[in-house]
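To whoever picks this up:

The parser on our side crashed when reading a file containing two proteins. I've narrowed it down to the boundary between the first structure block and the second sequence. Both blocks are reproduced below exactly, byte for byte. First block:
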Amino acid sequence: MAYSHKLHAGNLGLDCTYCHYTVDKSSFAAVPPTEVCMNCHVRVKDKSPKLQLIRESFATGEPVPWVKVHRLPDYVYFNHQAHVTAGVSCVSCHGRSTRWWR
């Protein structure tokens, strides 16, 4: 399942923490469960073929097979919680540029 950060966080202006809501409680920015997607997509683009996997996941309870955006070496460790709770915004590291957003 492809996901467009450019569309959701860029064009639509969704805050990163809406989907990655564990980022201030966990060391990593977890992939959100399908229910988070369906908060909007039960009404928005609810018939779109691109969202078929989301609807199936929601109906069956099986996780979405997401496409991984970042691949880091095993030795790399970054604690998002420590930075976010200290007031470092997502934009500080990830920027406003859409070059990394799919």
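<<boundary where parser fails>>
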Amino acid sequence: MKAAVLVKNKVEVKDFDLPKVGNNEVLVRMKACGICGSDLEKVFGKYGMKSSRIGHEPAGEIVKLGANIKDFKKGDRVFVHHHVPCYSCHFCYNDDFTMCEKYQKSNIDPCGLSEFILVPHWNLSKGGLVRLPDNINFSEAALIEPIACCLRSLNKVNLQKADNILIFGSGPTGLMHMILARFFGVSKILLVDVNSFRLEFAKKIDQQVEVINMANMHEAEFKKKSLKFLGKNGSDVSIISTSNVSAFIQSLSITRKGGSISLFGVPPKDTEVNIDLNMIYSKELKILPSYAASEREIHQTIGLMEAKLMNFEPLITHRFPLEDSHKALVHAHQAIDSMKIIITME
């Protein structure tokens, strides 16, 4: 079989032996897998987490099951979650599932960008393989994991109806936050970026969203425009859906007193910022990093998608075959005319 692997900041598609399926394991033929911002950080940036595997948003079809597997059958259409917590450690008891040691050590084999994916016993035993409802296609299913991550981000900041929110970054996860927030009943959404294509794309998805293109804009002008739309108090919630460090710094002054900031985008490793800690203290700003998602948000997302309460599929602008994985990552990184990019075997 073929799989995409990271070799010195380049993704290469190489031949691998088909995995042997143990008694408590399942083999899935990948049908679709999204390209994620963390994949781009691994290839083009300085990713701070341990894993260097590319592709963690896969969906596919079961082709082989171990002798002890009773809950699934050959031909089942499934979503595959790469990291799964133990649900019984100190972190899990405190709902910090993504901080669980088992969560960060668990994974699928060899990765999501692979013709076939071995789902190990650990993932299966903890709910990391989920049967897809009939009305969710494989392309939609490749969006489940990033939507779940955005859902967890919004859950952590305790988003309220009628909130005014500010989203830095109009990439795929920025727009996923936008769609979810609108569904949850927020009043105003301000979307900020330097990418004209993506800002215009967002307006097609949500005509009520206000956008600001910050390219060549002075900070004072940006603040003035932001507060004119959001109101003099600023945003109730700000979401940093970009790795750009300046977005976080700017959010400190735009977010209202007592407001919340979701640090969602992956900052490059060893990033340092010079900020006024007294301002954070005196404004009582709540800064809440949000890394990844657990099965809780995965099932919530699948439920929302099955009910067709929101439509995320229009975010997919490009599909690439597995052999063009590096080309797909470059296209996603350049972001000239793309939103969500998926690798497909259909």
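After patching the parser it read the second block fine. The longest helix spans residues 144-156. The radius of gyration is 20 Å.
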